[in-house]
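FIELD: query
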Amino acid sequence: MEKTKFVALDTETTGVDPKADDILSVAAVQFDEDCRIINKFHNFYRPRKNYIPEEASRINGITFEQVKGCPLYSQTVKQ
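FIELD: result
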């Protein structure tokens, strides 16, 4: 019998409006049944407007300098 595994997901955005705001970061951590880390994934994404509002940066700690060379989230997701 295969043991249970868990995944914790996290996203960071430029705001809370799904039509106007952008995903800046996606992360996932896979754990085994003893809560040991099995695998990790993390990517940054550049916002469509090419800036991050100051309030968003204060909350999530992500600056435009960190993401300016990254792809847009929409460029990485199959539609």
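FIELD: remark
Residues 54-60 form the longest helix (7 residues).
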